[in-house]
């Protein structure tokens, strides 16, 4: 199974939130563990950093199951700071995914990673700055940004799927080149 | 990647600073604003200011040991007091919650007799005392209300005279409201009155006022007609209207500034 395929599986675990009561049949932490495994399989500059970030996110995800109020919007200062760090770590680990992907598929340039990371950064910033805005304006901008982020998230999966196919083709080409040699 | 790490660090610092600033604005305890026991309409109305994020949740209001809860189940056969518990206004840092308790049974009014304040209980165990005014229904045999309108652009009332009386003066008992128009049988009358006016049966009276900021849902203001009735007795006829404008963000912020340390 190639890097992109494992990342897609991991991301899908985070995408689907199907709950039976409080039990999530696709727990996020399993997705993160799969992503840690994906990073451990490749030799790339930021694979190790990505694996560390995904490991921390897996641990916070498990803590989130035990202490769900940690990820519910709250006024508890400690939980808010944990949520901020968690958000920033998520951006860092996505950047590592993009970076490793770029290294695997050299020459496959795309504007999407930069756009997606910029949007996530803006969203992170606005979520905490916007609370000082008028409530109506904050809620409208937050809703619009959420819709935009959802579209980007869907495209992110499509983006990974395309890259998975390219990685497959690349592996096959490398395989046939080795057998010819 | 180094640039991204730097950006993430800056974003994180801004986020934490913003959160800490918001935290300094939070109220530890809700601020009671005002309230009324409206015996005429069998309602208890009041309001309090709380945080917009994580507001203090209302549990009950207590008068002389008698609690009124919002969760009382509705029964078709045994009407229970009902409470509407809505956010009255919501601004950046603070919200005003204005519960209205509808009483169906006259027995529910008994514990409220002579009450001037109530104790609001919140779900987190905090209690606060709120001063309450009272309004009781007053029969006005001299006037019959034909129509009235209320809105944020002002209020108006149209009345028919049923019994003759002499009007000495018209006043609004609220500094948030001004009298705009006073008409008798369609003709404008200047206020304050310079001389008493005689009203006869079938005369029509029209009063128009500006609106004012209501400190809780369905707050009333009073208009007083100082009259001399048919038996030559001095009387005050009290007419009421609703205030319809919601308090501004500045008003709420000033209230927090003044009383936030309660």
TrEMBL record, chain A:
It comes from Solibacillus merdavium. Keywords: Membrane, Transmembrane, Transmembrane helix. It comes from the Bacteria. The lineage of its organism: Bacteria, Bacillati, Bacillota, Bacilli, Bacillales. This is Uncharacterized protein. The chain crosses the membrane at residues 6-39, 46-66, 78-100, 112-134, 140-161.
From TrEMBL, chain B:
It comes from the Bacteria. This is Uncharacterized protein.
């Amino acid at each position: 199974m190639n890097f992109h395929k494992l990342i897609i599986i991991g991301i899908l675990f985070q995408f689907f939130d199907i709950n039976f009561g409080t039990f999530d049949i696709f727990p996020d932490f399993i997705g993160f563990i799969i992503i840690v495994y994906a990073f451990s399989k490749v030799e790339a500059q930021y694979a190790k950093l990505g694996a560390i970030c995904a490991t921390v996110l897996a641990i916070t995800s498990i803590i989130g199951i035990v202490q769900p109020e940690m990820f519910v919007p709250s006024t508890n200062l400690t939980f808010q700071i944990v949520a901020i760090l968690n958000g920033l770590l998520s951006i860092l680990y996505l950047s590592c995914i993009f970076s490793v992907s770029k290294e695997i598929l050299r020459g496959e340039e795309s504007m999407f990673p930069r756009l997606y990371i910029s949007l996530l950064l803006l969203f992170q910033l606005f979520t905490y700055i916007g609370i000082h805005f008028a409530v109506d304006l904050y809620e409208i901008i937050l809703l619009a940004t959420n819709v935009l982020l959802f579209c980007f998230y869907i495209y992110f999966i499509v983006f990974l799927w395309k890259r998975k196919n390219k990685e497959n083709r690349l592996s096959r080409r490398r395989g046939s080149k080795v057998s010819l040699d | 990647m180094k640039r991204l790490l730097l950006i993430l660090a800056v974003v994180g610092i801004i986020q934490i600073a913003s959160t800490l600033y918001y935290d300094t604005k939070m109220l530890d305890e809700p601020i009671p604003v005002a309230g009324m026991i409206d015996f005429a309409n069998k309602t208890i109305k009041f309001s309090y200011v709380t945080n917009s994020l994580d507001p203090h949740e209302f549990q009950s209001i207590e008068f002389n040991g008698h609690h009124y809860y919002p969760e009382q189940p509705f029964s078709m056969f045994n009407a229970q007091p009902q409470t509407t518990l809505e956010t009255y206004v919501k601004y950046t840092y603070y919200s005003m919650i204005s519960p209205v308790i509808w009483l169906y049974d006259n027995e529910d009014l008994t514990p409220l007799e002579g009450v001037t304040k109530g104790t609001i209980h919140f779900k987190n165990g905090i209690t606060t005392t709120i001063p309450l005014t009272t309004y009781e229904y007053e029969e006005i045999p001299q006037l019959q209300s034909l129509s009235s309108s209320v809105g944020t652009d002002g209020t108006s009332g149209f009345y028919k005279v049923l019994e003759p009386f002499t009007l000495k003066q018209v006043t609004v008992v609220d500094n948030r409201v001004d009298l705009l128009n006073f008409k008798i049988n369609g003709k404008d009358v200047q206020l304050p009155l310079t001389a008493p006016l005689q009203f006869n049966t079938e005369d029509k009276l029209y009063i128009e006022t500006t609106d004012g900021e209501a400190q809780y849902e369905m707050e009333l203001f009073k208009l007083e007609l100082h009259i001399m009735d048919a038996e030559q007795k001095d009387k005050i006829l009290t007419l009421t209207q609703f205030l319809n404008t919601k308090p501004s963000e500045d008003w709420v912020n000033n209230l927090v500034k003044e009383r936030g340390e309660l």
